[in-house]
Amino acid sequence: MPSLKDLKNRIESVKSTRKITKAMQMVAAAKLRRAQESAEASRPYAERFNAVMAGLAASVGGSDSAPKLLRGTGSDDVHLLVVMTAERGLCGGFNANIAKLARAKADELRGKGKTVKVLTVGKKGRDALKRDFADLFVGHIDLSEVKRLGYSNAQDIAKDVLSRFDGGEFDVATIFYSKFVNVVTQIPTAQQVIPASFEDEATGDDSGAVFDYEPSEEAILADLLPKGVATAIFSALLENGASEQGARMSAMDNATRNAGEMIDKLTIQFNRSRQAVITNELIEIISGAEAL
Amino acid sequence: MANTMQFDLVSPERSLASLEATAVQIPGADGDMTAMPDHAPTITTLRPGILKVEAPAGASEYLVTGGFAQINGDGLSVLAEKAIPVAEVTRSHLDDLIADARASHEAAKAGDDQSVVDDAAKLLADMEALGTHMSL
Fold it and tell me: Both B111 and B56 in a single domain?
């Protein structure tokens, strides 16, 4: 049975924990709004880009002269997994879910006898995968110093990936990130970026129009494909940013509620003990008086 | 015939402009071109340069680098990797761009593909000309 003083201390400590989680939740809510805004602002670019690329890829894709980024290297023996996670923890299952998906994919590929390489973006993913795949790591990109994600961050990652591809280090690249649905739902997603695959979005408004290309279709495609990789990574980074804040917000909301429940429980226990002490004292006084 | 067309300028980070325009001058990879309503459907890549927009509401200019423009009969979308309204461009923006161009020129010189070196040299010259043009 803890003493009254112990109980009081515990209540105080849980109260300050609740203050911290509450503050974290509010910070995450503010950041989430900003992250969501930038994710939405980037959407028109990505959509149009993919629509044009899908059209181009469909018309050039079949030929042998198609760029390697679209056609692939002709084999799929070496896979590069780009695992994008957060730099910070305390955001529920966010990092763990992405790591889990990446781990499952890596195991599956290795089971088929493929070579797997892992490039991590964000500290938490690296920590989560270090135990199983430390020997597969080929690089790490640190975004902890980045205050606000910009397109240039995505370009840096894309540059790294593309230079490895040009160097013949891998055949297929897949990015892992979390798609933001709403505050309580984030879906860990794997998306193949090299060789590029475009969903069939070409059936948009301009279907039927025959375009002139300046310079040639091939030249445009060769110019745009690397940008496509950067665009895909940029959208993934932004989705990830929003997902992270959303996950943190709901995790901290839960933590705050749990702390509240714990305080209630401890307060009841405290009051009961205090009542017991008072009753005890009364009994002692009364029985002392009766003995006289 | 329509006098105006829908003009959109988007960069990865945000959408910069969406308005009705009468003519837009695009710095295409193969040379400048001006798109007007009912232009033949065209897709062209961009070289770094100034995009000039003429609209009933007034003219505006943007510094754009990289990306492409898609023209179809009733509209024009420009997707630029970087786009800045000319009024907001400062010398330091330009210095960054020139530094980038110079770095890629140096990198190209290290290789042995002459056409890459030429392209990079042209980019560098373009950038420097841009600075003079804007009198920064």
Answer: no
